[in-house]
Sequence to fold (216 residues):
Amino acid sequence: MAPRSYATAVQSAGALALLLPPDESMVSDPSPLLERLDGLILAGGSDIDPATYGAERHPETKTTWPGRDEFEIAVARGALDRGLPVLGICRGMQLLNIALGGTLVQHLPDLVGHSDHMHTPGAFGDHEVRLEPGSLAARAAGGELISVKSHHHQGVDKLGEGLVATGWSVGDETIEAIELPGRSDYALGVVWHPEEGGHDAVIGSLVTAARSKAPV
Fold:
């Protein structure tokens, strides 16, 4: 179940929000779902099963939902193949990376030496992110240095095929944004939560991209 804030952000940007629950019957061919969409958001949520990217489970990797992982990877790949605008948020950014063959750091504190990215269970933390000038991430967010809300303990490790990092945490250089230049006009992952920011323009940028792709 996705928090109401995702749908509210999409609706506030002038679009219709549809929720796609995991459906095992759609994994082999998600086209019946995707043909009804103009854009796709891969939402946040629980940790991704490390088996999806060939890793052993870290002690801090908690509750996983393999059925959701399998469904969303299939939907993400299908959306990219169809040229749909795709936005991955937090877990969704991580899943976009895995869908293209990438891997994850299962517990960021092991790498960066602190828990600032998820310092308070159940609450979003504020920090600054530096975005690559001219990148899709910077255009979507409306700036190259932005304040964001985040809550995660995992992150991108090896980048998936074709993906490039275009955003980093100020201070520890954790990857905060990834995108897919050359293959897609709009394929973006951000590890922060634009649906919680109120002023964050990222979801609106997805809606704009989806509207430009929609049939007349």
Notes: The mean pLDDT is 92. The beta strands are 40-42, 86-89, 104-105, 125-131, 145-150, 155-156, 164-169, 175-179, 187-190. Residues 66-82 form the longest helix (17 residues). The domain at 4-213 is CATH 3.40.50.880 (Rossmann fold).
